[in-house]
Write a structure and sequence with these properties.
The protein is an alpha+beta fold. The chain contains 26 helices and 33 strands. The relative contact order is 0.06. The structure holds (3S)-3-amino-4-(1H-indol-3-yl)butanoic acid and zinc ion. Residues 225-433 form the Peptidase M1 membrane alanine aminopeptidase domain. It comes from Dyella ginsengisoli.
Length: 869
């Protein structure tokens, strides 16, 4: 198929002012009647999208249409004779239970007990009815649902309830009216046997909103945490952005069968159960945070996405990057700013940097696509958020809020573009922000080079910054970007210096903006050569290249008052220490180990921050620094690095700390308890590297005594990874204990898929025969195959290529069921060109054979062709 291009955008010829949709719901067949009230230019043909629909009836202005007056082929229904104000009625049949792709209307769970639901973003609505399936067509929806009352007691759709009642033959109906015009990707319905919890929420504007969370009956008690999180984020959006909720009801539904994390359908959010259900016995501390974050993310879309939507899918980051940023702000406010920033930057480096460095690289606003579902990427989401963060940093809190108010006011009820966003932020602050548009149009992570020079005579420190784009096919000539660099200078005692620039004292931190290829910045009244701390808070999504001496980084790691910057210095130092491990060097390795041993002994340090400081960059990040990647070697060297750290701290000190972190009594979920558990896990992992018997005995005890999932899973993971004799028993116990809980069972699969090295493949193969394994459930497929292929480099990248072969075979099987998930798992092959020659050849062979398969979906074919490039 030909690609769809941003530059070909044209406004729709026809709009749909309102739609009356009615569903006769059934598991095997559902019939959908749609009445579209059309506005447009009668001289232009009416073309509606429709995929795999069985057309039962069609009428224009209440008159049945002759077969000659319409044509349906290749996913498009073309209708003749339509005039401005016409009403087109279609009746179609769909087959929810047969829909394994989980887009459009489908069945979640079993035929007997499951429920029906929809997923329309990005282009699922065309699987439900004929419609202009594009985000710039905004329509008022009236939706009537009819179904058997016993089988589908709960009937939900987006908007406000507008009546319900009985029908003959045990059937019933319910109607919903959404007063806010919306694109069809925000349409949703849910029907089935569900339980609810509910709460009244009083908005800052004084309106009462009914908040309702729905799930299958056996897990309804696990919805309370999400309800609390929902209330918190609603209040936060009122306070931080002045945004209030705008319907009488807000429904949230949990499903175990979902392609992504959650979906912000207007008034009816649908969640992957993994991001909604939380209970201490089965949910880890990190997962609690993720539930809070995803609940907030979807809720925040009500303004950044729903009230102001996207003109076209090229603008996806307009809603996703902005909403990720809003969620990150919220999570930072609810928890810890430094820890949240560490988590987000680590994710960016682990997921987005490799994407941006490989053949799948694309700009935050892509120029073209074949399959839009393949563009829900770390670049659009995470890098997109970093771009908003740069803009927010430039404007400052008040200027950013002014700009956001302007953006929401100006674009409310519109389908907007990235330009609209930059214009609103700029206009509200009398600034031209259009230079930032370049960030949205360039693929690749820019490199920022920094060179410092101290002139003792002039008491002046000069910093020369230059930017270097990654060579990339899409834009040979890249214009310089505005790169905000937040910085500070430290003296050799670790004190921050007052900064004087151009005769002015600017405080202890300054932001300089590099907007040319190279620029020099001068700092006066500096007595001795300082240590620069650059890119503080990760002020721009770039790769910093600076010839730091290990001692300088160690000084920042031990003295910077800001936790994030401390961590960042530690990460850079750890990377140098990793190089030492390879080359037998000592300087960086000792500097890193000694600095951390010193911090380990500091009782005032936040345990959660300490845990993060004690964690070197992951194997994927370390691989990004290599010319030629040997994942087995990276794994071994990283183990050696951590072992050295553990030895420097000492087995005794580690064991002592472990004992001190042991808490008796019932599980606590407060920040202090979570921080302690985080550190306990890290300490146990380090101890396992140098004193396996002691660590295994501790892990064994921790597994048996664990009050919650965080401790239980940490212990299990240490037992499995360190090959403890008791690992098999612990695994069997976990399997038995959580047999009825799919989310806990996913963790059981994932922990084994992470086994490092050659053994992993065999384990994955044997787990595929576990009766609980199925490719039909995305969470399960991701837990086993996704973890193996994307989260276990030394296991997946076997030199014999058997890991690649296994993934390729499973991708073909998965693709026949669910192309979106197959395509996503296939991105594990990204970066194969930089593997060492033996693995590279093996990967090429497997990928080339996969690309030859004639039956691949458009989703998978695009990714396979893309990575092979
Ligand atoms: N906006 C939502 C995207 C989404 C999605 C996209 C493609 C296929 C299935 C999907 N489910 C949800 C999620 C979000 O970013 O909030
Ligand atoms: Zn989103």
């Amino acid at each position: 198929t030909a690609p769809i291009r941003l530059r070909d955008y044209a406004p729709p010829a026809w709009r749909v002012e309102s739609i009356e949709l009615s569903f006769e719901l059934g598991i095997d067949t559902t019939e959908v009647t749609a009445r579209l009230h059309l506005r447009g230019d009668a001289s232009r043909p009416l073309r509606l999208d429709g995929e795999g629909l069985e057309l039962l009836a069609i009428a224009l202005d209440e008159q049945p249409l002759d077969a000659g007056a319409w044509r349906y082929a290749d996913g498009v229904l073309e209708v003749d004779g339509v005039s401005d104000g016409s009403v087109l009625t279609t009746r179609v049949r769909t087959h929810p239970a047969a829909n394994t792709a989980l887009e459009g209307l489908y069945l979640s769970g079993s035929r007997e007990a499951g429920f029906l639901l929809t997923q329309c973003e990005a282009e699922g609505f065309r699987h439900i009815t004929f419609f202009p399936d594009r985000p710039d067509v905004l329509t008022r929806y009236t939706v009537t649902l009819q179904a058997d009352r016993a089988r589908f007691p709960v009937l939900l759709a987006g908007g406000n309830p507008d009546g319900a009642g009985d029908l003959p033959d045990g059937r019933h109906w319910a109607r919903f009216v959404d007063p806010h015009p919306k694109p069809c990707y925000l349409f949703a319905l849910v029907a089935g046997r569900l339980e609810k919890i509910e709460r009244d929420y009083l908005t800052g504007e004084g309106r009462t909103v009914k908040l309702v969370i729905w799930s299958e009956a056996n897990v309804i008690d696990s919805c309370h945490y999400a309800m609390d999180a929902l209330e918190r984020c609603m209040r936060w959006d009122e306070q931080a952005y002045g945004r209030h909720y705008d319907l009488d009801v807000f429904h949230v539904v949990a499903t175990h069968d979902f392609n992504m994390g959650a979906m912000e359908n207007k008034g009816l959010n649908i969640f992957n159960a993994k991001y909604l259900l939380a209970d201490p016995d089965t949910t880890t501390d990190d997962e609690y945070k993720a539930v809070e974050a995803v609940v907030a993310h979807e809720y925040f879309h009500n303004w950044s996405g729903n009230r102001v939507t996207c003109r076209d899918w090229f603008q996806l980051s307009l809603k996703e990057g902005l909403t990720v940023f809003r969620e990150q702000q919220f999570s930072a406010d609810m928890n810890s700013t430094a820890l949240k920033r560490i988590e987000d930057v680590a994710l960016l480096r682990r997921a987005q940097f490799p994407e941006d460095a490989g053949p799948l690289a694309h700009p935050v606003r892509p120029a073209e696509y074949r399959e839009i579902n393949n563009f829900y990427t770390a670049t659009v989401y995470e890098k997109g958020s970093e771009l908003v963060r740069m803009l927010a940093g430039k404007l400052g809190p008040e200027g950013f809020r002014r700009g956001m108010d302007r953006y929401f006011e100006r674009n409310d009820g519109r389908a907007a573009t990235i330009e609209d966003f930059l214009a609103a932020l700029g206009d509200a602050n009398d600034l031209d922000l259009m230079p930032y548009l370049a960030w949205y149009g360039q693929a690749g992570t820019p490199r920022l080079r920094a060179r410092g020079h101290f002139d003792a005579g002039a008491r002046r420190y000069t910093l020369t910054l230059s930017q270097h784009a990654q060579a990339h096919a899409d834009l040979p000539e890249k214009p310089p970007l505005p790169i905000p660099v937040k910085l500070a200078l430290f003296d050799r005692d670790g004190r921050m210096l007052a900064l004087r620039m151009d005769g002015q004292t600017v405080g202890h931190e300054a932001v300089v903006v590099l907007d040319r290829d190279e620029q020099t910045f001068a700092f006066d009244e500096i007595e001795r050569s300082p240590v620069p701390s650059l890119l503080r808070g990760f002020s721009a999504p770039v790769i910093l290249e600076c010839d730091y001496a290990p001692a300088d980084l160690a000084l920042l790691l031990t003295h910077d008052p800001d936790g994030f910057n401390r961590w960042e210095a530690g990460q850079q130092l750890a990377a140098l220490a990793f190089d030492d491990c390879r080359h037998g060097g000592q300087i960086a390795l000792q500097a890193w180990c000694n600095a951390l041993a010193q911090l380990f002994a500091d009782p005032t340090l936040d345990p959660a921050l300490l845990a993060d400081l004690l964690t070197p960059p992951g194997e994927v990040e370390l691989a990004e620094r290599e010319q030629e990647v040997d994942p087995a070697q990276i794994h071994a060297l990283r183990q050696q690095l951590q072992k050295q750290l553990a030895e420097t701290i000492g087995a005794f000190a580690l064991a002592q700390r472990l004992a001190a972190l042991e808490v008796a009594g019932p599980l606590q979920l407060d920040a202090v308890a979570k921080a302690q558990r985080r550190l306990k896990r890290r300490v146990l992992e380090l101890l396992a590297l140098i004193d396996a018997p002691t660590a295994q005995a501790r892990a064994d005890a921790q597994y048996r005594r664990a009050q919650g999932m965080t401790d239980r899973l940490a212990a299990l993971s240490v037992l499995v990874r360190s090959d403890a004799a008791s690992a098999a028993d612990a695994l069997a116990d976990f399997r038995r204990r959580h047999a009825d809980n799919p989310l806990a069972l996913d963790k059981w699969f994932a922990v084994q898929a992470q086994l490092p090295g050659e053994r992993a493949l065999e384990r994955v193969r044997s787990l595929e025969s576990d009766p609980a394994f199925t490719l039909k459930n995305p969470n399960r497929a991701r837990a086993l195959l996704g973890t193996f292929a994307s989260g276990n480099p030394s296991g997946f990248h076997r030199a014999d290529g058997a890991g690649y072969q296994l993934l390729a075979e499973r991708l073909v099987a998965l693709d026949a069921l669910n192309p979106q998930i197959a395509a996503r798992l296939a991105t594990a092959f990204n970066g194969w060109q930089r593997l060492e020659p033996v693995r590279r050849d093996a990967a090429r062979r497997v990928l080339s054979a996969l690309a030859e398969k004639p039956e691949l979906s458009r989703n998978l074919a695009e990714i396979v062709a893309g990575v092979l490039k």
